[in-house]
Amino acid sequence: MTTLDILFGAVGLITAASAVLAVTTQQLVHAALWLIVTLGTLAGCYLILGAELVALVQLLIYVGAVVVLVLFALMLTRAPIGRSPEQSSSAVQRAAAGVIGAGTTALFASVLLPALGGEIRTPRAGDTQGIATQLFGSWVWPFELLSILLLMALIAALAVSRMPTVSAAPGVSAQAAAPAAPPAPTVPAAPPVPSVSQVQTGPTVPAGGESA
Amino acid sequence: MSDPVSHSVQLVILVPFLAAILGLLVSRNRAVSAFVASAGATVSLLAGTYVLYAIHHDPFTQQVPTVGALPLGRLQIPLNLLVDDLSAIVVVAVAIVGLAVQLFSTWYLHDDDRFGVFVASVSLFLAAMFLVVLSGDLVLTLIGWEVMGWCSYLLIGHNSRKESANKAATKAFLVTRIADLAFVVGLIILASGVSTTSIPVVIGAWPDLPGASLTAAFFCLLIGVAGKSAQFPFHDWLPDAMEGPTPASALIHAATMVAAGTFFLARLFPIFVLSDPARLALAVITAVTMVGAAVIAFGQSDLKRMLAYSTLSQIALMLSALAVAPASVGAGPGVLHLLSHAMFKALLFLAFGWLSVLVSGTAAVKMSGGVRYHPQLRLPIAIGLLALAGVPPLVGFVSKEYILGAAFDNVSETGSVAGWIVLVAFGVTVVLTAAYCTRAWLVFTHLNPQDEATRRATREASRTVVDVSLVEIFTEPAPGTAADSSAASATSAVEHDHGHAGIFFSARLAISVLAFLSVIGGLIIFTPLVGVEPHLVWYLATLSLLLITAAWVVVRRLASMSSSGDAADLLGARRMAMFDNGFGVDGVYVAVVSPVVKLARIVVTADRQVIDAYVRGTVVVTRWAGVAGERAHTRKPSSYLVWLLLGLLVVGVSGVTLW
Amino acid sequence: MIHLWLPLSLVCILIGAGAYGVIARRNAVLVLIGVELILNAANLLFVTMGSVRGDQLRTGHVLALFLITIAAAEMGVALAVILALFRDRGHIDLSEPGS
């Protein structure tokens, strides 16, 4: 057992445990919080493996933005605080889930471990310079496409939130696709491009009385 | 060997065929289609007459090519037409009858909306009959044979809105087709024996081949001939075929199609004489038909059906001539009776058709006294019935005497069973024929009691001093007397009563020509046209005359005992119904066929329940699968996710394990 | 020097947990959490392979970065949809039948 092994084992154990807890706990908000732990320790794994840039980006984006988004979503959808066993699905479904989860694990294990598991390698040192060169060099086109993807995701989120629904009041929804102030939409209409004439800063709480 | 003859022969067949096609195209225009049909028949008649003249001017036998030989390897099919004295005279006779029928149809079917189709079908039929007569190749004979059968179906079923006509047409077609199967087998045997279908070669080469196969071939051919010529046991389609219009019956079922079998056997006569068992079989069949049909004819309540049964009997007569004539006599008597029967039977059918229009029906009760009220029919019907009965010097007498002579020669030369059978049957038939002819005449000339009183009063009031009874029979009543003018006006009133026009000149001309030929046709024996020698067995002729006279007297006596002047009334209504039914031969047909029908039903059931069940099962399975698939749509996203990941997992595992 | 089976087994566990989370949860947001776990497992695999068998193009690490980006975009849209769903129906329970 090398040092890297022991380090990785410890951090990985926490990751695995928190992941399992995230998916099994009956308290909804705790699930999001365990997700934070998982993602954070995963960043630690990346560090151990020598990928510093990736680890930092992971922390920034996943822990900093995505999980915040999840928490907001839970809040806005009136997730119950505390234990809520009625939020768990039926036993049959959980049994099916268990089968599928175990099956997936077994599948990947049977592929990965025989192929690569016996090897011992030295992770190379973190090479931010090299990654940057490659990122803006060989991978520039996918990079640009990804920026378009992000733009599309932003527009899609706005469009979905402005979609007219059956019981919709001309309300607003708060979205943050990126750490930017979300513009609030106006009267629901079809066009995918929102008008930016009315911009409201800060998220606003949707009118609460639509449905029960 | 001369080209005009070849071209004339080809014209004889081609022109009616083209007239048929053209007639179909113009069938909506009545006048044009009538013209086309009559013109076609006239051209054939002229061409046929020219060929007849050429043949006898400078005797020859010629083979005329048609479309060229079929290349079939070892079997040679030259597809030639054969022109000799036999085919020439028959062509002319068929053309005369055909033209007469076309002219008559223009009047008879005057108010029929499918007139154009009718005359076109008649033209097609004429083309087919000419093909059979002129064919020098077994294949061409078969083609003409089958086309005639099809035209017969079309013409019988002409009144297609009547269910009985459709049924009769189908029955005729099916019965003759079944017989034609045997016919084809016979032709195949004949052709395969000599590896060619050319008739002269067949006739020339078969005498050297084994007699058993020749007999087998002729048995098969006889079945086909029996079917087409409506002999026992295939006879039942002909009386039902009277559903067709009368001109069609005149052409097909009296003069031509039913005689095609006779012609074909006459053509093959040189080898037919070599096969004694086949001739014996033919003699038996024809003897049974001759006598049976004449008996049934006497008891028919519908006079047109009586004519049909009479046709059966007469055809049996001409076929029996072929069955017993010795080789030295040849096919002459049979062919002679074919020609004479064509003339007087067509005459009778057309005259009956005319009368049926005037009295709007063909039942004996309707036609009763018809000739008295419509005197212009007196002469044609009288001539026709006299010829049918065989009274000298009409053509019927001549041809029957020749047949009698041939049978007598057979008996005296060889004393064979066939000869005796035919001779005895002939004698019985002569009596019966005369009997039903007399009965028909007496029905036609029957006087109602009140008309009889009127007539007596007229006679007594008349100032003309003549022997009225003789005048009565042979002339129309003198115009000008009050009663006669009322009778004449009644006649004209009846003529136009049914919306039918008065008879056209062309139709009357047709009937008159046929009547004329029936009278003088006997003179043909003095020409070389038919190939018989003019001789007569005097004591046999006297015997038959005595039999005819005896029958006349007896039937007259029976008729005077019945109230309606119909001698057959004495049979009683129930027995008449049996006669009308043909003694239930239809039932025999059904009994023969019903096991086959049952078997067919079993097969259909098996197909539907057993084999189709698998096909229907796929429907059921698919429907169940659909229901199951629909139940899988729970509309719950969580269960969809389950299925999705499950599917992915399965794919992944299979990919990994099966790699 | 690191034994590769450690990161790889962590990958497998994370995937299994993520799959369980996707199926066993009724709340849509918790299903998304499961999806996140699966994405992160893939990310770990990328980074592992990029670290121990890196190539000239630094494929492993670059793709890991891309994957993070894509996951973020996807989360945004998914949560927008969930909120629209909540507005429409009043709940985001995935085991209720749809309308």
Short description:
Chain B is an all-alpha fold and 659 residues long. Chain B has 28 helices and 4 strands. Chain B is 75% helix and 2% strand.
Structure description:
The complex is a heterotrimer of chains A (212), B (659) and C (99). Chain A has 212 residues and is mainly alpha-helical. Chain A folds into 2 domains: 3-126, Four Helix Bundle (Hemerythrin (Met), subunit A) (Up-down Bundle); 127-163. Chain A is built from 6 helices and 1 strand, in the order ααααβαα. Chain A has helices at 3-24, 28-48, 52-76, 91-116, 128-136, 140-161; one strand spanning 120-121. Chain A is globular. Mean pLDDT of chain A is 80; it is low at 169-212. With 659 residues, chain B is mainly α. In chain B, 75% of the residues lie in helices and 2% in strands. Chain B has a two-stranded antiparallel sheet with strand order 1-4. Chain B is globular, with a radius of gyration of 31 Å. The termini of chain B are far apart. Residues 470-498 of chain B have low confidence and may be disordered. The longest helix of chain C is centred in the last third of the chain and has 31 residues, at 59-89. With 99 residues, chain C is mostly helical. Chain C has one domain (5-89): Helix Hairpins (Orthogonal Bundle). The interface between A and C is large, with 106 and 76 residues. Strand 1 of chain A pairs antiparallel with strand 1 of chain C, so a sheet runs across the interface.
